[in-house]
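Let us practice reading a record.
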Amino acid sequence: MTASGENGMNIGDKVAFLRRPQSYPSGVERVEIIETHMSWVFLAGERVYKLKKPVRRSFLDFSTLEARRLDAEREVRLNRRLADDTYIGVVPLVRDGAGRLRLGGEGRVVDWLVEMHRLPESLTLSAVIAAGTLRPQDIDRICGVLLEFYRRRPPLSLGDAEYRQLFADAIAENHEVLARESFGLPAEILRRLTSQQLRFMEEQGELLEARTAGGRVIEGHGDLRPEHVFLTDPPLIIDCLEFNREFRIIDPVDELTYLGLECERLGAGWIAAHVLDSYRRETGDDCCPELVTFYRLFRCCLRAKIAVWHIEDHTVDNHEKWRRRAEEYLRLAEAG
């Protein structure tokens, strides 16, 4: 991360301004802040504002003001597919003639923020699971929204081998990162898990090619986790993976398997079978168990890799928490 952007404005000054309740136009009493790898999120009263960090990674580039503007606009456009009214739009952070920062209005634009309506955290799928009040009919409502979303997505024109290669490349990268000695993950478990994935690719990789040939691969959500699903009426799903289209190229069976995995990690393992049964029943796509097992294994390793990335981020506290999280995913993968 750079200390200042191409406009010479220090990123720390932007964050300090957005921390202050008086920076917002609607009588905010306090501001809650969430920091992620790529953004700061400011919970200000009934609104949420997201400021992207000026970072560059192998899979994204937010290093320029224009890149952040384009990504903010893309985030709003894509997320309106599953949470239309929640995403208000993109608002500029400006510096006026006196050198003061403010949200919107006249002045020199120094950054861009995504503005959203704030949804009740108590209605996230993760919170309802934790409260022990989740019902099968709640999952049915979520499935209804997702299956309609998938029906509206046109199949992607990928070469059969292209989709298969995406997995081959990702498996190699996942293993390379997770095997680094500095993370201290169980090497034997990791070796077995990678071997299982490679064996599937060699012996049954044609199952992946059949998904593209059958028109099953679409541009989906890309990050379908319980904390992104709200049990409102109707259910809303936010925070799609907007910054890299390749990560949204997905088989709905893979995406639903991912959601089931994350619910299992939170103690609601029954959801995995429930969502796939709903998918099979409504679509007639009787995806084979071997494919589901592969998708689950792959997602476990991918999520473990994302967890250990936090350890390399020096702005994130409690590195041991993230090492344990990565190991938790590897144990889930081994348990099948």
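A brief commentary: The first strand starts at residue 31 and ends at 35.
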